[in-house]
Design goal:
The chain contains 20 helices and twelve strands. The protein is an alpha/beta fold and 442 residues long. The protein folds into four domains: 115 residues, Rossmann fold (3-Layer(aba) Sandwich); 174 residues, 3-Layer(aba) Sandwich (Rossmann fold); 73 residues, Helicase, Ruva Protein, domain 3 (Orthogonal Bundle), CATH 1.10.8; 42 residues, Arc Repressor Mutant, subunit A. Helix 3 links the parallel strand 3 and strand 4. The chain starts with 6 loop residues before the first strand and ends with a helix.
Length: 442
């Protein structure tokens, strides 16, 4: 997916200001990279294509002036813009001598920011002024943290590229931990709806009796406790994207109202007969087999077909193992900066262990493993920093798996007979949790 907007790197140790700047710049149609320290900034500059550097001056350890001097020496064509909360004539002179084109005094308005950024970018030939060593990072930033170059991953990207600018409903399917919400966010933030809100709703976390009120809102007196009119998630997402996660957990009555909302592009609050027109895109996700849920009479067939105008199957990590090194590097960067203020490398032997594992918990499990490894490591992440279940995993040839599975099946059956069907006791004997046992029984 091509990049059509300038890449801006914002540096500030104040995370609130950093997030505010990022949001404002994104609404102005820029790609935004963020860094909370000079060390992290250097890493981004080496691996990304940056068109403008915006940095604070007052930062711990290495300040913004030193960063400016470094950037001016190594990336002379890249424009630099400085933020400062302590304006003075001497300070302004020092900033300009260090290579910055201009500086802004905090606080500043969105209009002042837009004017300063436009002016800085208009100075000279800045396009891709910093080094480019990792084109994956461009995908990473544009697609909300998604990285990879496997065929399975690229197929997902190609579908995102086709649906990002239209209002067709999308159903994202995949195992738990594969990154379905990231896909939904990528659809939103890479398309024309990115200037509108992205509202994520976990249908499985809302009690059945509250789902309708939470989604569509309610009027005063509609039920006990409804003391005033209140908008729902549909109204909150107007002009943007409503992401309905775990859509398979939505109650039957809510499914009926969802179907009408998608068909008629209108909703009515609980307790009201007045309909309201809506203008938004609906993206849903599930790790359930909705066709099976339809057969069980748990999910409406007509709603299923309304949701699946476009389907995206997010592949499990075991089917995109070539992406593991890039994902590992991304998590090493994230947690290395968070816990150590530096990027930790990984030993090739440790990476081989990670690539060998089947990852039943998918990307979420991989991220947890890397987070733990960064905490435990004294230097480069090695095998000793990985959990024991990874270190001692035995990989069997494919032809040996079937008899092993049959032995496991028979053993689980015997344990269930012994416990007279008590799954809690069986799970305790088998030393697995109840969910794993249920999955194996299924």
């Amino acid at each position: 997916m091509p990049l059509n907007r300038e890449n801006i790197l914002v540096v500030d140790d104040d995370t609130k200001i950093l997030e505010l700047l990022a949001r404002r710049l994104k609404t102005l149609d820029y790609h935004v990279f963020k860094a909370i320290s000079v060390n992290e900034t250097l890493f981004v500059l080496k691996d990304a294509s940056i068109d403008l550097l915006i940095t604070d001056i007052q930062m711990p350890e290495v300040d913004g002036i030193q960063l400016l001097k470094y950037a001016n020496e190594h990336y002379p064509k890249m424009p630099k813009l400085v933020l400062t909360g302590y304006p003075s004539v001497d300070g302004a002179l020092e900033v300009l001598k260090s290579g910055a084109m201009d500086y802004m005094t905090k606080p500043f308005t969105k209009e002042e920011l837009e004017t300063a950024v436009t002016k800085a970018l208009s100075q000279g030939d800045h396009r891709h002024a910093s080094a480019v060593k990792n084109p994956v990072r461009e995908h990473h930033e544009e697609l909300n943290g998604m990285v990879g170059n496997s065929q399975a991953f690229q197929h997902v990207l190609s579908i995102i590229g086709r649906v990002k600018d239209n209002q067709a409903t999308v159903l994202i399917q995949g195992e738990s931990g594969t990154g379905k919400e990231l896909v939904a966010r990528a659809i939103h933030y890479s398309g024309k709806y990115r200037k509108g809100p992205f509202i994520a709703v976990n249908c499985g976390a809302i009690p059945d009796n509250l789902q309708e009120a939470e989604l569509f809102g309610y009027v005063k007196g509609a039920f006990t406790g409804a003391e005033q009119n209140r908008n729902g998630f549909f109204q909150a997402a107007d002009g943007g994207t409503l992401f309905l996660d775990e859509i398979g957990e939505a109650g039957w009555d809510v499914q009926t109202k969802l179907l009408r909302a998608l068909q008629e592009k209108e909703i009515a609050k609980v307790g009201s007969r007045t309909v309201e027109k809506i203008n938004l895109r609906v993206v849903a996700a599930t790790n359930l087999d909705l066709k099976e849920e339809i057969n069980k009479k748990n999910f409406r067939e007509d709603l299923y077909y309304r949701l699946t105008v476009v389907e995206i199957m997010v592949p499990p990590l075991r089917k995109r193992k070539s992406d593991i090194p890039m994902l590992v590097n991304r998590f090493l960067q994230k947690y290395g900066i968070e816990y150590r203020d530096r990027l930790l490398p990984i030993h090739p032997d440790a990476l081989k262990v990670l690539e060998r594992y089947t990852w039943p918990g998918n990307i979420r499990e991989l991220e947890n493993v890397i987070q733990r490894a960064v905490i435990m490591a004294d230097g480069p992440v090695g095998i000793k920093d990985l959990p024991d279940f990874l270190k001692y995993e035995i990989t069997f040839p494919q032809e040996e798996l079937l008899p092993l599975r049959e032995m496991e099946r028979q053993y689980i059956q015997r344990v269930l007979v012994h416990t007279k069907g008590n799954k809690s006791k069986a799970a305790e004997i088998l030393q697995i949790n109840r969910k794993t046992l249920r999955d194996k029984i299924d």
